[in-house]
Amino acid sequence: MSERPPISPRSPRAALEPEQVPPPPRRSERARNPFVVVGNAIFTILIILMIGAGAVYYYGRQILETPGPLKEDKIVNIPARAGKRDIADVLLREGVINVNPWAFIGGVFALKASSDLKPGEYSFQKNASLRDVIATIVEGKVVQHAVTIPEGLTSEQIVTRLLDNDIFAGSVREIPREGTLLPETYKFPRGTTREQVIQRMQQTQKRVLAEIWERRNPDVLVRSPEQLITLASIIEKETGRADERSRVAAVFTNRLRQRIKLQSDPTIIYGLVGGKGTLGRPIRRSEITQPSPYNTYVIEGLPPGPIANPGRASLEAAANPARTRDLFFVADGTGGHTFTETYDAHQKNVAKLRALEKAIQNDTVEPSEDAPPPTAAGAPADTNPTATTPRPGGQKKPPRPATPPAPAAAPTPAPGRQGAAQSTTTPVAQR
Fold first, then answer.
1. Residues of the domain holding 356
2. Residue 191 — left, alpha, or beta (φ > 0 → left; ψ -120 to 50 → alpha)?
3. DSSP letters along 150-182, please?
4. Is 375 in contact with 225 (CB distance < 8 Å)?
């Protein structure tokens, strides 16, 4: 029988305590590897960065997509050579954005548009988001301003209009040749140089002239595109009505065919004042016979060059005149003209117009306080103003006939049409 060790009585508390505390487990050799430690640190950093990037992406997207503060569309000018911070300041000042400038710069970098921001005048839409604002500047779709150059102005008058328009920049080196600019409505961004405007008008004129010259009537008497411009400029100054241009063209074409002097008053005016375009008073009787290369009362055929810049419609009329035998036309008192083939019929129409003008003057015109200057004994007065007739668009067109070869009694002179866009006209004497 084996012997058992004696049993030593223990207290209940001692019985619950282990007789020997087990040693702690040994740390794995792999866990103590420095590569594992570094790897765990990198993994932890990556997780933190991913969470941060996600938060930044979410916040940045909210900034880019949130509707902006604009209550209505607004035009804002981004100056040339402005940096990203300058652009942000302009947009913030104009109320286009309401975020910190650094948020705008961050949006520019996020959209990879750092080198694509273009200066100019932009139209930002109502509630445009930051993304929309940046996209608008990157696309470079600047505001286009419509500029209308009326028909019948001289090159000098057109240059004056360009110089008075603050949309354009720069100066004009020299006045373009008469008739080389096409009057039309053009669109330009703010800051376009005036030389660029002139170049565009000249290029458009060359293109349009080539097209019209190509499809001209083969029977037309002008021998070159330059002569076509000259004839069109006279037509432009003679009438402002679209439905009359081809008939006025026919009158001058028939006169050229029959070797009758054109006797167009606007040519006298251009010979007197040149590019200024407006005489500012009626033509004097003495000026009708005053020698000038442009005075078609003196010279045969067309003048040496245009007297204005004709529009497309007048060029078309000169290239394709109406098929009539008319040699004369005179104002009819209603804004239009009456055309006739014979001088006798023309004189009757002139008499009707004078009677109408006299009736109008008796009803509406008060006597002038200033007496006309005295004239030489037996000589007719130099001026004889008459009422002007209404023109389309609320403007006035002086009564304009084309006259026959100089009759025995000298006709009373009259200035021609002073340009389709002139806001004022001068009293004229009807011949």
1. 327-360
2. left
3. -TT--HHHHHHHHHH-TTSBS--SSPPPTT-S-
4. no
